[in-house]
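hiii so my PI (J.) wants the whole complex modelled not just the main chain, which honestly fair. so below is everything: two entries, each one labled with what it is. i double checked the lines twice but i was tired so who knows lol
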Amino acid sequence: MSRIIALSGGIGGAKLALGLASLLPPEELLIVANTGDDFEHLGLSISPDIDTLTYTLAGLDNPSLGWGRRDETWSFMETLAALGGETWFRLGDRDLALHVERTQRLRAGETLTAVTQRIAARLGIRATLLPMSDDAVRTRIRTPEGWLDFQHWFVREQCRPVVLDVAFDGAAGARANPALLAALRAQPRAIVICPSNPLISVEPILALPGVRDAILGCGAPVLAVSPIIGGQAVKGPTATMLRELGTAPSAAAVAQRYGALLTHYVMESAEDAAGIAPKVIRAPTLMRTLKDKIALARTVLAAL
Amino acid sequence: MSRIIALSGGIGGAKLALGLASLLPPEELLIVANTGDDFEHLGLSISPDIDTLTYTLAGLDNPSLGWGRRDETWSFMETLAALGGETWFRLGDRDLALHVERTQRLRAGETLTAVTQRIAARLGIRATLLPMSDDAVRTRIRTPEGWLDFQHWFVREQCRPVVLDVAFDGAAGARANPALLAALRAQPRAIVICPSNPLISVEPILALPGVRDAILGCGAPVLAVSPIIGGQAVKGPTATMLRELGTAPSAAAVAQRYGALLTHYVMESAEDAAGIAPKVIRAPTLMRTLKDKIALARTVLAAL
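here's the output for the full assembly
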């Protein structure tokens, strides 16, 4: 069995992951979620990218919000506000059940991998979904106000403080998910870097000891899909972050961040491919509908 | 200022507490909640009697369920069931906000007293509401299956296992709430034992070091309201527990448990007062409406 290994952050990555899951037999797809965005909030262990992938792959994503869970209700949050609690990170009543269940199982000694897989199975997800590591890696953002935890910068501060630097606390000492390293050793068919934010969704995975070398050494093609269209990210702070870190946001700028890792790069026809070393595949990368997601996944698989 | 100190468990006790709060200036009423029913569940610190008192005093109690919170929704519980989580203890979405907020503040080092008072103030409760102790006291029930945590016996097992014994783990080493002991030293006007289950709602309070002696030594009248009408508890397992522990359930049996502590006892006209040592006040004790609660509170205050 030769597997596709997809590295993914949240929303954009999850869309392509769903497309891939719609086309591939479940045993041929391994989806690896960034956990650098994970944090502890209100005493709960929250894993935003795992959750977005879980909800998207299970068909439970919230189409009107673009994040969180379908058929959501907000009684908890309303009441927490009335009690004077912290409400900057919005947790729906249904979403909360996942966080409470995960937190309790982690405290009981289960790994994040075990919890993620149990919940995925329970919700009918057949492809394998793994956290990048069972150890805590925490993305932090350096701003003129000092270092901020990622979700404080991203959600509480609404990305307003200028980004001066990004760090992945704990990454150097964390162990990459053994199942990821094993899959990289087992002659994968390809590695797909989903259209996620390179700086905060993909690079935390690549920062784990052994992952970059294993990708380079596995001999499989490595294909990334650009998260940038027309100098803008479809969603999220990718473009702003690139700009604040001194790079004009473009599809090419993202490819350059991945450097020698890439063999293939999927980007929009209108984007400038100058300076991109890997093989360029031109395709529509905006995924609004399930059909779009499957079409892009088909393009990706055809290129490999 | 001479205070009424009300000792209370959950539902029945909270009704009389609300009656008292409707009649007394807030600074003259101190309500002390049993915390023997408290437990940790799904990683949350849950204080059922404090919560029932809080919701009742704030006018937020759920009139149709008879427990929990008004205008409740159940998305969390539904979703937790779908995820395979523990659902034997039902937590509404709004109720959950209180548990999450309390748990987080306790973990941050606040006392249960501080958390309880902050939430009570936030919800507009003007009388003082205190937990009996800031230390953990855990009521346990001995059954033919062994010792069970109280909520496991009460909710999960629906009171089915026969009660052989009741213990208050941690009570001997716990410190009674200093504000309760101070109020008992400050010449209270009276102590009112609300119509709660003596075995599991009132006796945990009396089991705290110094409380019984302080009540006996304070010189104030001690009035209890019978939780038994016609050999039955209005709600909850009081009658069954008394019977299983070898006592025919009656108003008199409850008075006898309190023994020398009582100076006054309020009970229904139809109940047998034989063998009751304290002064008996006959009154309707069933509280369906706010009017009933205020009427009983008025009877109590008139007797003192």
